[in-house]
Amino acid sequence: MANGLKVLVVDDSAFARTRVRRRLLNDPAIGDVETAPDGVSALRKLIEYEPDVVTLDVQMPRMDGLQALSEIMATAPTPVVMVSGLTDGDSETTIRALELGAVDFFLKPDTSTPEGKAALDRLADIVKQAATVTLSKMASTDEAVMRAAMENQLNAAASQPRSYRRSLNMDCLAVIASSTGGPKALSVVVPQLPADRSTGYLFVQHMPPGFTKSLAERLNRSSALEIREAEDGDKLEAGVGLMAPGGYHMKVDSRGIIRLDEGPTIHGVRPAADLTMQSAAKLYGRNTITAVLTGMGVDGRDGVKAIKAAGGSSVVEHESTCAVYGMPRAVAEAGLADRIVPLDKVSGILTKYMDERAKQPIGAVS
Predict the structure, then answer these.
(1) CA 198 → CA 131, 160, 261, 278, 365, distances in Å?
(2) What is the chain's pLDDT, residue by residue, as a tens digit (366 residues)?
């Protein structure tokens, strides 16, 4: 784009609109920025202005961010970055927006601090990344299909009470990693994962603190698995999925106990999937399996390498359904992907791997 990106900033605060517009225009890749005070005005400008990216405040009068997002996707699909506050309501709404098609989100900084003012610079990077996303490549969530898949899993799980399933010796440990576009991808994969296998699950999604808990709760409601944000001291259990909390690396120790830490970022992120995968491979060896879904960067590549070296198996999401073909590409180009499949096939491959490992169980984690 010779003249730079066109961005539409939607926020009910005139101060916020001015501040964000000024910061975005400081980036040479961004050529023009228009603003709108609410979702209703944004929809009018969307048609006239034809922006490359929209930043959309979650909380607005007349038409909130979620309603505006739905209208944008229905009338003029455009990459959308949600702008969210750190409240339970905002985080829940933001996760829902990501499931509905928002590309990414930006956490409103406290601009009274130097760190907060500097954080605004990251919004330009998020906007530029969003502009590279082809919305038609993002796998849609067919609610009827997902509901049927979840009901099938729940019916299968009902034949074995949860208390019994959780006492099973774990034959397999599955690690699933994702970043940009991940909440939507997980909403497709997770409802199809089996809870009636002797498999424990670890999830690593790149998100800041406060949002991973909302994501885990939403996934828990749509899955036969028991999914929750991990806490230090949690133990691996069959049929249970533990999600790395935003801001913390998640590892598993030699006894199958979850350990969280605030060590240095890896590839610029914390949690980092590499660390989770490497610790999982050390404990479960060939009975470790992994899936790497949509996301920017290379996190997961070194972790998959450790899993493969231990005899485990991997599947990565195919470029055709990735919001951002970064993390899966890194694994595939390193020759570490056993299978490369569209998003709706990932859970089936993981289930196949589980069944193969169940024939040669490794026994209980002591």
Answers:
(1) 42, 12, 27, 21, 12
(2) 448 999 999 999 999 899 999 999 999 999 999 999 999 999 999 999 999 999 999 888 888 888 999 999 999 999 999 988 766 667 888 898 998 889 999 988 776 677 777 778 889 999 999 999 877 766 444 444 445 544 554 554 444 444 434 444 688 999 999 999 999 999 999 999 999 899 999 999 999 888 999 999 999 999 999 999 999 999 999 999 999 999 999 999 999 999 999 999 999 999 999 999 999 999 999 999 999 999 999 999 999 999 999 999 999 999 999 999 999 999 999 999 999 999 999 999 999 999 998 877 564 333
Tokens linked to 116: 């907060």
Is residue 179 annotated as part of the catalytic site, yes or no? yes
**Residue partners of 323: CB distance under 8 A and separation at least 6:** 103, 133, 137, 138, 180, 181, 184, 185, 294
**Catalytic residue flag (residue 125):** no
Catalytic residue, from 27, 38, 84, 206: name it: 206
Active-site residue, from 52, 90, 234, 299 = 299
Q: What three-state secondary structure class fits 144?
A: helix
List alpha helices for 285-333, DSSP H.
301-309, 327-333
| Sign, Cα dihedral of 70, 343, 135, 3 | positive
